[in-house]
Structure prediction request, 177 residues.
Amino acid sequence: KLKIKHEFIIVNDGSIDNTENIIKKIMRKNKNVININNKKNLGIAASFKKALARCNGEKITVFPSDNYSHKILIYNLLKSNSKADLVISYTINTEARTKLRNAFSVFYNFLYNFCFNTHFKYINGSAIYEVKKLKKIKIISNRYSVFSEINIKFAKLGYSVHETWGLMNINRNKSSA
Prediction:
């Protein structure tokens, strides 16, 4: 619907199931797919860094395989992709998480905003980054906090930020995040 020029970078992070065959099938049908195959699980930060190194586009985003992001969230992010150097999402249906998970998220977000004097509605939301600016910063984190680190650095460097709302998938598989 949005007619955005795109490529897909699929990172198989050490899966031992049928993932590699599924990726090969997708690649036969779509010429704009890049496959990165980690022989062992390296985690989301290392996988994202590898994808960033291979990225040919002006913008990059990541959608983890835990099926967290509802199609409305993805649509709102993509629709807003030209509004800022960093377009970040926050979810409005937090009841989709357990109360304990919500408490951790609220605390995590408060801690980052307090420590770094920022005002993100959700510091670790799915985001779209301008690739040239992203490649200029030194990314230290090797864990899921990599995206919080990047978001803080974009804000502190004075890059433009736009926040947009989205939904979490309610009936998604359990995540180990």
The longest helix spans residues 99-116.
